[in-house]
From TrEMBL:
A family per Pfam: 2-Hacid_dh_C
D-isomer specific 2-hydroxyacid dehydrogenase catalytic domain span: 8-312
Protein name: Hydroxyphenylpyruvate reductase
Record-stated family: Belongs to the D-isomer specific 2-hydroxyacid dehydrogenase family.
Superkingdom assignment: Eukaryota
Organism for this UniProt entry: Camellia sinensis var. sinensis (China tea)
Alphabetical list of InterPro entries matching this protein: D-isomer_2-hydroxyacid_DH, D-isomer_2_OHA_DH_cat_dom, D-isomer_DH_CS1, D-isomer_DH_NAD-bd, NAD(P)-bd_dom_sf
Amino acid sequence: MDAIGVLMVCPMSPYLEQELESRFKLFRFWNFPQKKEFLKVNSSSIRAVVGTATAGADADLIESLPSLEIVANFSVGLDKVDLVKCKEKGIRVTNTPDVLTEDVADLAIGLILTTLRRVCECDRYVRSGLWKKGDFKLTTKFSGKSVGIIGLGRIGLAIAKRAEAFGCPISYYSRSQKLDSKYKYFPSVIELASNCAILVVACPLTDETHHIINRKVIDALGPKGVLINIGRGPHVDEPELVSALIEGRLGGAGLDVFEHEPEVPEQLFGLDNVVLTPHVASATVETRKAMADLVIGNLEAHFSKKPLLTPVV
Ligand code: 8YV
């Protein structure tokens, strides 16, 4: 397969790069600042694109690659891949589900705990010597608090399962009620937010879910409520979130994703009721290797005319 051109759109995993390089003719897009020139010379030999959460295959890239057969993304979310265009052109698309579910759910629970129990602030308190001057203030209990989940897919369910172990009543919102689910369904995000203490965003980013967390939802969650986002930044109207946190209309937030990554609103840096992580929910050695192996597995299956491991289109 070493003559097959594979275009990696940005750096995402040195292990994946190495594995791709040993099997295919790998093009690292980021090494070519003159994209148009690069495409003029190489576009017809590129049969696969490997994208990620931050850069995938948009309509322009797809149109510029006449030999493209498959987009094998190094992410579960496919909001950076033009799925409609791929369908239209008969281009296959794969993602990396399941292998990252546990890590993402673990981090969601981690963000809940660090936000409610102020773990980062506690750490700064000890390091800066403040403990010698007095005890840390009291924080907020997690066990038993009601958890509302937006999106009860693989990741949403894994978060629910974990939160249940903390004795939390679980409710959810999704496009339609899951009839086989024991959790309480709310037909709107506002109703869900009005009825939970902790609201977790765990749905895919689509036109429908863009800014699903808006001012009304934030106000429904209220000054004691906490928002956790391990989905995508654009799920949240970020300026509204920032002003709600500053004005005390929202109790706190644990955020792994942001609207304009890696830019994060600086107003958040001064807030102790906020925990910020740099889009790392799936970023463990074990999971990133499993994701890379799945990308390779899908490409190998495709080019040896076998069924894809995790097909989406
Ligand atoms: C990214 C993610 O893939 O899977 C997703 O949708 O957001 C992450 O797991 C990861 O950040 C690599 O870019």
